Amino acid sequence: MNGYLARVIEEVKGKHGDEPEFVQTVEEVFSSLEPVIEQHPEYEAADLLSRMVEPERTFSFRVTWMADDGTWHTNTGYRTQFNGAIGPYKGGLRFRKDVNLGIIKFLAFEQTFKNALTGLPIGSGKGGSDFDPTGKSDAEIMRFCQSFMTALHRFIGPDVDVPAGDMGVGTREISYLFGQYRRLRGAWENGVLTGKDFASGGSLVRPQATGYGAVYYLENVLKHEGESIEGKTIACAGFGNVTWGICQKAADLGAKVVTLSGPDGYIYDPDGVTTKEKIDYIVEMRASGRNQVKDYADKFGVAFYPGEKPWGVKVDVCMPSAMENDVHLEHARQIVGNGVKYYIEVANMPTTNEALSYLMSQSGVIVAPSKAVNAGGVATSALEMAQNSERLVWTEEEVDQRLRQIMNNIYTMSVEAAEKYGLGYNLVAGANIAGFQRVADAMMAQGIF
Ligand SMILES: NC(=O)c1ccc[n+]([C@@H]2O[C@H](COP(=O)([O-])OP(=O)(O)OC[C@H]3O[C@@H](n4cnc5c(N)ncnc54)[C@H](O)[C@@H]3O)[C@@H](O)[C@H]2O)c1
């Protein structure tokens, strides 16, 4: 590996060994950049990479809230404003009990390149809390969101930092957060958050956008292979917001998602999660706060596999869409053994680096990286910001058409970037290089700080 890249990776490992997810993503992204760094000695001269791995600003804060039984609880809130070179900091909030600074920084680092790939003016950030929404009442969620925003509101704004949803944070939470922001600011600045409910200025298609975008990206990959999406079977993970969008768009286009999963195991539905009743039930399961996929099996009479992951099921396409490091080497081997040709990452960093290297070394498997595949969510968030700025509402068709165009562009840019540096048809390296190049150009142009 290029000496400069190796040195920065070693420095990150030495300094942030207690943040394994952050180290993992830095290593993954930087390992693709060798030809770029070799051709641009000015990056090393300006020590660009050391500045890219250091967030511009990171803070944590106290979030105290009252449970329905009158007891008080205190959680930690986080926000990392990672890179503002190409626009206001932008990235989701995650509410999940395992959230810590390393997780937030890994997500924000990924977000830097993802946001750049959209071609829109959005920098990167990420935040969240170790608050566990499982089993919480609606009133508890509301009080938590109000307290979280009371602590955060003076550090964000439509031109400063624009949070959105992530795991555990959907339309309901974003709208509660916005309500509290409005109350505190005394002004209608609804561009401060994206993923709001429609009446508060949320964009049409935003709830489905990450899943829809992932399927549009998949269509590009299939087209490259001379295939169509019609009739394809897809294994998904989770039953969250992203998986719900994939199920809908796949069904619209004649494909079917046959697996969903949860912390309790996975379900296999040979007919596919294709009907309105099944797709609506995903929303119901997510809102129930029970966090178990077994409910789907009980309701629709399909098989449930407790404690297992869905990666051993024979399908045409695998789309891990729930959480990071869900697919390990043993699962990757099962995927290859089953002859799956398309491995399309959707969740942020769903594959361990070991499993990813193995999958990429297999000539029969096409691997697409999450930072490109799931960028439709943040891209549509940027479209929501545009609508909020011009105080107009775009139709569903207009938003969807722009989303599809953005996903096509991301795919094409990634293919071209890998080809330009002699790496062939490599969607993983191409996305890393194309995203890096845009941020690097802006950082170099703005001077060293
Ligand atoms: N929401 C977005 O717009 C968006 C955008 C880009 C990327 N992402 C990424 O996509 C992924 C999913 O996000 P989401 O918004 O759908 O979150 P979500 O909270 O709506 O859903 C997460 C799902 O993961 C499942 N899950 C949790 N622990 C699990 C485990 N141990 N095993 C299997 N499943 C488990 C939960 O049951 C839930 O169904 C995350 O990696 C997120 O960072 C989301």
UniProtKB/TrEMBL annotation:
GO cellular component terms attached to this protein's record: cytosol
Residues annotated to bind substrate: 90, 111, 114, 165, 381
Keyword Acetylation (UniProt): no
InterPro entries: Aminoacid_DH-like_N_sf, Glu/Leu/Phe/Val/Trp_DH, Glu/Leu/Phe/Val/Trp_DH_C, Glu/Leu/Phe/Val/Trp_DH_dimer, Glu_DH, Glu_Leu_Phe_Val_DH, NAD(P)-bd_dom_sf, NAD_bind_Glu_DH
Keyword Metal-binding: no
Subunit structure: Homohexamer.
Keywords: NAD, Nucleotide-binding, Oxidoreductase
Positions bound to NAD(+): 210, 241
Domain of life according to the entry: Bacteria
Organism, as annotated: Pusillibacter faecalis
Domain Glutamate/phenylalanine/leucine/valine/L-tryptophan dehydrogenase C-terminal: start-end pairs: 203-447
One GO process term, biological-process aspect: glutamate biosynthetic process
UniProt site (Important for catalysis): 166
Protein name stated in the entry: Glutamate dehydrogenase
